[in-house]
Design brief:
Largest sheet: 4 strands, mixed
Number of strands: 4
Order of helices and strands: HHEHEHEE
Helix content: 40-55%
Mean pLDDT: 91
Strand content: 15-25%
Length: 99
């Protein structure tokens, strides 16, 4: 979707992502998460007032328990953004798509 066609809510959530990017990058390193990608309404440009920020990541199980790391990343990301309207989803484990 073109940036100029995105809803005002999308633009606000994208700005929040940009503002917290360095902190999020530090959390990704801490928890061994790679390839973060926003998806859902924010990525499509259709976010509304009730929309959350959805981010998918990849993790290597060789770095430790992926469920515990994903949980820790989720909680710290919510603390960083100051809202529970942030969700971190595990997309790949060592090249295997999680469905």
């Amino acid at each position: 979707m073109r940036e100029d066609a995105a809803t005002p809510e999308t633009l606000a959530l994208r700005a929040l992502l940009d503002a917290r990017r360095s902190g999020l990058d530090a959390l990704l390193v801490k928890y061994g998460a790679t390839n973060p990608m926003p998806f859902g309404s924010v990525a499509r440009g259709h976010a509304q007032a009730s929309s959350d920020i959805d981010i998918v990541v990849e993790m290597d199980p060789a770095d430790g328990n992926v469920l515990m790391r994903t949980s820790g990343l989720l909680q710290e990301a919510r603390d960083l953004f100051g809202t529970d309207a942030v969700d971190i989803w595990l997309f790949r484990i060592q090249g295997v798509v999680v469905t």
